[in-house]
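[Meeting: bench + compute handoff]

Bench side (C.D.) handed over the final construct sequence. Compute side (W.E.) agreed to return the predicted structure before the next meeting so the bench team could plan truncations. Sequence as handed over:
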Amino acid sequence: MPNLVDSPEQIPDFSCLQLNQLKDCDRAAHDWYRFVLSFPPHLVQDYLERFGITAEQRVLDPFCGTGTTVVDAKMLGIASVGVEANPMAHFAGSVKLDWSPNPDELMQQAERIAERSLKEIEREKEWRSLPEESVKIILKNSISPLPLHKALILKEQILAEPSGYQRHLLLAFARAIVTDISNLRFGPEVGVSRKLKPDAPVVEAWLARVMAMAADLRYLQTLPDASATIHHADSRQLLQVLEPNSIDAVITSPPYPNEKDYTRTTRLESVLLGFLNNKAELRALKQGSMLRSNTRNVYKADLDDQWVSKHAGIQQIAQAIEDRRIELGKTSGFEKLYHRAAKHYFGGMAKHLADLRQSLRPNAQLAYVVGDQKSYLQVMIYTGNLLAEIAEGLGYEVVRIDLFRTRLATALKEQIREEVVVLRWSGKMPAIAYPFSDIPL
């Protein structure tokens, strides 16, 4: 495997210092709903160009989140497919791929809904609220009582409108909730602002989001059409949703091995749109199709760690984490899972990369955006290097590792690398198909 390369000719030339932010020219569709820490469209564009991907080829994002890669590929006229386990993110990405609504009709329907909603808000004197079992799974004070009351009335009116555009109207609702109506704030983690909003212009904020969506649709409908879809599925079980020998390029950013619970980022809107209703459904989501990237979704019956049971480097890191825990006297249930979470994460990525091989065409090119981590008791995890080692053992060629950016880890007060692991698949299965595993496969 080649050493880490930082030479200028191998690093994407991004002039913006805040590399994860959307450029104004990239806001159409992408800005309908987006994770705050999503990787940016200009990174996708850069690697599509580097890989020489054309309209005759097909791009995959197996951890597609809210659809950055597939949306950008569609804009460029390139066929694409995504896989996403989080139902809210899957919904958002799927809607962002649908450019069929008539913008004028969309606005007319939105204005009718807004008028009805404002009248109902004025009429109702008793405030609506969420069921208690739903309140238990959202962050306390995520949204103040009066804005919540207004939002529930607005959602009811959206669902009551006989419309083929309901999904777009609901996505605009989710976007307005998170950005304009709730008390949430976003940084490395989602939290609640100290200054709560006792009230918010709920209907007006939603209508503004629909208006922006309609303006985008007028532009998007001028672009050439390209096939694009997102499967609601597990990235570790790709053979269930992808055809053999069908993918020419992969551009993706999987979760990193840390304590970030990715379901928290979308929790409020997931509850308001009905994707999650109680603790049992939340547990089922975490235990089912999500990569094990944090201790909140590691369970006793999990077997992903067996995929790297023979990988010396990962076993050493897991042991170092456990030794540090014992040395520091950390005894909480989550702290005791730190070493297991690290092994399950890389095991899940190994399973993903193993499955993926059958869907790749010969000479397929891949870019994985990952970040080094010290979340587990400050034991350094060189995610990119370890992922490259796993890929090489599974028969991939490690072309290089590009530096995407460095970011300040606020808790550690040090710069941490985010990198792009660039791979190539020759089409030839190695002599030992699963070199790091004890599982009889």
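W.E. noted at the follow-up: The domain at 8-99+224-258+293-425 is CATH 3.40.50.150 (Rossmann fold). C.D. will use this when planning the next construct.
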